[in-house]
Amino acid sequence: MSLLSYTPLAISASSGGESQNPFEVLYGHIVAQSPVEFLGMQWWNFQWFQVAAIVLVFLVFAPVRKSVQQGNGGVHSKVLAGWVTWIRDEMVYPNMGEKEGRKFLPFFLSLFFFILFMNAFGLIPAGASATASVYVCLALATITFSMMVIGGMIAQGPIKYWVNLVPHGTPGWLLPLIYPLELIGLLIKPIALTVRLAANMTGGHLVLLSFMGLAFYFGSTIGIGVGLAVTPVSLALAVFIMIIEGFVALLQAYIFTLLSIIFVSHSMHPDH
Fold it and tell me: Which of 34, 104, 236, 260 could form a disulfide with 144 if both were Cys (CB 3.0 to 4.6 A apart)?
């Protein structure tokens, strides 16, 4: 769906001659659309952008390893290698230690850049941010939750992991109260990851599309002249929000990955 097709005339030319709400048309940009039958399944636009993000990760990082090993990489390889080093030294190792962090580093690197590229796709014309879908965010959070539980059970033991959910030294009479609270706290973590990412990406797009919709709204309700007069202000505000959205795309990938690192580390080492 191209935003260039949203003109006051196009908005009012609905079936039966009735006007459509321009904001409803614009907000269609952040919901799953255009299902296509492929391999016996329905593929929505969000799924195509997820696949594109995976392909982009492989394409972007394909030359990096060889260039770094040979020591003759260009600016592209050096910048990406710097990002990898920063994530390793500033996010993974400080929270998990070098020994365990080295084992989990490929997963967290993949998670970070996968989310980053999905976020970035929502900033391009006719693009869509898959992370604006709560289902995509929930799937990512479920992967983190699985690593928390499975990693914790492997590191501590399948029984000791569940025993250690309750702090040592807790009085026995408090266990019926504390243990359910700890279980609820464990389940809330993936929910918090889901809501934080989905809400931030959806909210940013809503603000951006709302500013863009002002010109269409005034043009379709008051007159095209008023809509054209409001357009410069509407466009300036949209560009400002777009710049902020670029920062938010990076920030949310960072926050989701960092919280995932902390949650997995705490599950493996409850004493921390």
Answer: 260
